[in-house]
Write a structure and sequence with these properties.
This protein is of the alpha/beta class and 427 residues long. The chain contains 13 helices and 16 strands. The strands form 4 sheets. A 7-stranded mixed β-sheet has the order 4-10-9-8-7-5-6, sandwiched between helices. A 4-stranded mixed β-sheet has the order 1-2-3-14. Strands 11-12-13 form a 3-stranded antiparallel β-sheet. Helix 3 runs parallel beside helix 10 and helix 11 runs parallel beside helix 13.
């Protein structure tokens, strides 16, 4: 612990204070392999948290592709190179036919920033709608979308926030079709408000899995009414796939496919290159060309040959190792395990998720559905001390976030579940 104190003091001196760290006892990592992380003392941790190393920490096929391309050429897209073309061709083949072109960036934040400007270019409007517990990145534009950390000077008049969907406590008090109708009505109100303002309405941006909101279990067709309202008003639908994309939810390559909708623009980020900095914006030809005409956009490192090699290797591994099927099967197995724990532990109020993105909302009273945020904080810290890394999120910050690398196995799930059982038993 002494070494960690020294490291923390050094971080504060060199990187500034208030730089966030996971866990009350921060973990000093030195190596990763597959679903495992290793600290400076050689202790092994099961990683149930990190979606960035999507196909596993330091996957040899990805690291080899990076090294091979880095030793050959790395430059930008103002020169001709097949790497970006081969990758975008293969990437867009996984989408609906209407989503057939892409711009590559370095981060999901940049991708969302570009997506907002695409919507502006198409509609001539600037108003945008997001949920009130979302997160879409770090740029000045997308930071306007998050209510969790209000921007200096307050929110601009061009943003409207709608209530984040909560399947455990549905808007209007009723589940199913009534819940969907209540959400649609909120979107319609936000559209009308923007249309009456000088900004007009350009886009609704959502994570189709609503990950940061707590990944609610939404009924089939939940978003149909909201999407129809957006289209009727001449706006665009932006799907942020940074968290649910690349097969994370099991059964579908993309979260919007699971939700049964076809967006106008899709944004991609962290998992795309297994940790190598690459993001992207996928859109229809007309949408992308409208952006190119309205904005002079060039990104030196966006779509560079090394990043594209990493991203292509990720697609190879997803296909060759059947990781989407693995996510569906292991995720269902783990959720069933959580259900068994719920029979034993009364603080588990609700279980939800899909594929390898699942968790449990913790409560102090099941009948009242009272959020247990402090309890959730204790649980994830106790899990870390026992060698299993996970997080928490959600509207009430009491939902465990279990989102491991995609090669996660049933044996890994068993270890996570038995450790969680021990932790909950000790509360």
């Amino acid at each position: 612990m002494g070494d960690n104190r020294d490291l923390i003091a050094r971080r504060e001196r060199l990187l500034g204070r208030n730089m966030s760290l996971f866990y009350e006892e921060p973990v000093h990592l030195v190596r990763g392999e597959g679903v495992w992380l290793f600290d400076a003392d050689g202790r092994r941790y099961l990683d149930c948290y990190n979606n960035v190393p999507h196909v596993g920490h330091c996957h040899p096929r990805v690291t080899e592709a990076i090294a091979r391309q880095a030793s050959t050429l790395n430059t930008h897209t103002r020169y001709l190179h097949e790497g970006i073309l081969d990758y975008v061709e293969r990437l867009t083949a996984t989408f609906d036919n209407s989503l057939d072109t892409a711009i590559l960036t370095c981060t999901g934040s940049e991708a969302n920033d570009v997506a907002l400007r695409m919507a502006q270019a198409v509609t001539g409007k600037t108003g945008v709608i997001a949920t009130d517990h979302t997160y879409h990145g770090n740029t000045a534009a997308v930071s306007q979308l998050s209510t969790r950390m209000p921007p200096v000077g307050g929110f601009g008049g061009h943003v409207r926030h709608v209530p984040a969907p909560d399947s455990y406590r549905p808007l209007g008090g009723e589940p199913g079709a009534a819940f969907a109708a209540a959400f649609t009505a909120k979107v319609e109100e936000a559209i009308a408000s923007l249309q009456q303002s000088p900004h007009g309405f350009s886009a609704l941006i959502i994570d189709p899995f609503f990950a940061n909101e707590g990944f609610p279990e939404l009924p089939s067709g939940f978003l149909d009414g909201a999407v129809a309202a957006v289209r009727k008003a001449g706006g665009l639908l932006i799907a942020d796939e940074v968290q649910p994309g690349f097969g994370r939810t099991g059964g579908h390559m993309w979260g919007h496919q699971k939700a049964g909708i076809v967006p106008d623009i899709v944004t991609l980020g962290k998992p795309m290159g297994n940790g190598h900095p690459i993001g992207g914006v996928v859109a229809g030809t007309e949408t992308l060309n409208a952006f190119r005409k309205a904005f002079r956009y060039f990104n030196t490192f966006g779509g560079n040959p090394v990043s594209c090699a990493a991203a292509m290797a990720v697609l190879d591994v997803i296909a060759d190792e059947n990781l989407i099927e693995n996510a569906a099967q292991v995720g269902a197995y783990a959720k069933a395990g959580l259900a068994r724990l719920a029979d034993k532990h009364g603080m588990i109020g609700d279980i939800r998720g899909s594929g390898l993105f699942f968790g449990a909302e913790l409560v102090t009273d099941r009948a009242e559905k009272t959020p247990a945020s402090a309890l959730a904080t204790k649980v994830i810290n106790d899990m870390s001390e026992r060698g299993v890394l996970m997080g928490k999120l959600g509207i009430h910050q009491c939902t465990t976030k279990i989102r491991p690398p995609m090669p996660f196995t049933r044996d890994n799930a068993d270890l996570m579940l038995s450790t969680l059982d021990d932790v909950l038993s000790g509360l």
